[in-house]
Write a structure and sequence with these properties.
The protein is an alpha+beta fold. About 40% of the residues lie in helices and about 20% in strands. Strand 3 and strand 4 form a beta hairpin. Helix 4 packs across helix 6. The protein is extended, with a radius of gyration of 32 Å.
């Protein structure tokens, strides 16, 4: 028997303006696959500001996340509340039955990692480590879509285009070769920098060092007795 869309609509729960917090858990205990959508959570009116900041500071101090449920758009969601900057952030979480088990996907991976290869990759990771700065990684697809829409409005040809990969054979990348080439290039650059620094230090020492032999010419300077 088929289920009509109208029957699904009738199952929608009545929305509430409250979040039922059931427990508080450590942030590192939550599987990152559970995170789905983030929302900024604001106090409900000026009178709620005090309770809001108390919860914010308590969650920050305890490094925990509040877990509860919220009815939104007629559906009950599992949610987590955590701190973000000066406020609170609500995260829509996935229920346990919405997560796929990883075993069927990874069970066929039986290769063993070479120790030297791991060391090579670790060195590369350390050299490329830094702060998470997503603003420095532009969304080229969004930019291209914006340009296309703007070009349609202005009745002109869009500037630039996204190259299509259709018809092209996939490129196979040897990870180990890529790692070795990257490390060799960085190693050569490091050696060159070290040589430059040593040459610079040697030049400074020569200019600052006294002459090898004392002058035998009589000095006209008088010495005080």
């Amino acid at each position: 028997m088929l289920i009509n869309p109208e029957e699904i609509d009738e199952l929608k729960l009545e929305a509430k303006h409250t979040i039922d917090m059931a427990r508080f858990v450590n942030l590192d205990e939550i599987d990152s696959r559970c995170f789905e959508k983030p929302y900024y959570l604001l106090p409900d009116g000026d009178s709620a500001d005090e309770g809001y900041v108390v919860l914010r500071d308590a969650l920050a101090k305890s490094k925990k996340m509040a877990i509860g449920q919220l009815i939104m758009h007629g559906r009950e969601h599992l949610v987590g509340i955590t701190t973000h900057k000066k406020g609170l952030m609500l995260l829509i979480l996935r229920y346990a039955d919405e997560l796929r088990k990883p075993e069927p996907y990874f069970e066929k991976i039986e290769a063993k990692a070479d120790v030297d290869a791991v060391k090579l990759a670790t060195d590369l990771i350390e050299q490329e480590s830094g702060k998470f700065q997503p603003e420095k990684m532009p969304n080229e697809y969004a930019r291209a879509v914006h340009e296309l829409v703007q070009a349609k409005i202005e009745q002109r040809a869009p500037e630039g285009e996204i190259e299509s990969a259709k018809g092209e054979s996939p490129k196979v990348i040897n990870i180990m070769d890529a790692l070795k080439k990257s490390m060799q290039a960085r190693g050569q650059a490091t050696v060159k920098d070290a040589v430059r620094k040593r040459m610079g230090k040697a030049a400074l020492k020569r200019s600052a060092s006294p002459p090898a032999a004392r002058s035998t010419r009589p000095s006209s300077r008088r010495t005080a007795h």
